[in-house]
Design brief:
Blueprint: E1 18-28, E2 34-46, H1 76-86, E3 96-100, E4 107-108, E5 112-118, E6 124-132, E7 138-143, E8 150-154, E9 168-172, E10 179-188, E11 191-204, H2 207-216, E12 226-227, H3 238-264, H4 284-300, H5 304-310, H6 312-323, H7 327-334, H8 340-346
Antiparallel strand pairs: 1-2, 1-11, 2-3, 3-5, 4-12, 5-6, 6-7, 8-9, 9-10, 10-11
Helix pairs in contact: 3-4, 4-6
Amino acid sequence: MTPGTAAPATVPATGTPALYECLVSHARTAPVRHSLRHRTYMWLVDLDHPPRLPAALRPLARFDPRDHFAGTAPTLRAGLERFLTSHGIELDGGRVLMLAHARVLGHVFNPLTLYWCHDRHDEPVCVVAEVHNTYGERHCYLLRTDAQGRAEVAKDFYVSPFFPVDGAYRMRLPEPAGRLDLTVALRRGAARPFTATVRGTRRPATAGRLLAAALRHPWSTAAGIRRHPPARHRPVPAPAGGLLWAAGFAFESIGDFQFARFKADPAHRGRVMDRGLWSWTRHPNYFGDFLVWWGLFLLACGTAQSAALAVVSPLVMSLLLTYGSGKRLLENHLADRPGYAAYRARTSGFVPLPPRRRPHTEDPRP
């Protein structure tokens, strides 16, 4: 496009929206050497032409202005232009490309969102790097990149407990094409204690591609997942978790104590334990263990991230206790014991309930 010719305001950028299947790498050399790599996917969108998806797939990709900048602008474009105006920059309707994660099922975490800004003649003006930390805070860096997409800026936002707010970032952020190739390096004096890279391959943002990416990377933002807009500090369910754990521990301990005393009496040899807690549930020890696991879950789920990760353990244990190696196997073993069929008929199988009326005769069948 030649100078003096305005870019059409109603035509989206060529090839957008697009998906990038990415490999993200972090390398830290101080104070403790550590590195990690994970795969994810990101969107490249024209701010004036967001993706239009079938209704069934919209929960997998939503771009909400509350997730960016101050979170108060009516659109992403408006939020960006407020920031640029505060730095004396006007795009006059020029094209803006954004690289970011979308909301998936109402959740999103964008460690780094990038905006490539162009003027009305489609000439590059600047790049805005919006950084989010895991405390729900955001900060934008205005970058004047060279022809290779390189820029340097002083670090003035807290991100990691490993590094104070000092030093400078050296970034290489070329506008994405067929390949995505980004680098952010932290410099502290002559040292480079942290480097992050994002490498990706461009894919068309079709419904099939999106669904495949979401299935391959269901936890693509799990490193800091947070429901937006940022919530006020809410009390975590620790008190409820502690009470549930204590109730489960007490229930299991009392049940085991009652059973041990019952077995210790020679007069009870061969009889079915149906007293105390055992008259309310056939498995007070398993039910207590069930409460203990869910109490620990509540203690751990102060955030959406921790809840999503911690819920696996109590779910697995609940299935094992009720349908796996716990309740079911034990009851199969006891099925032929005299008196067990009647006990089973009048006593709850798991959740404690008042015992049902004793039948007049015992059914010998389980």
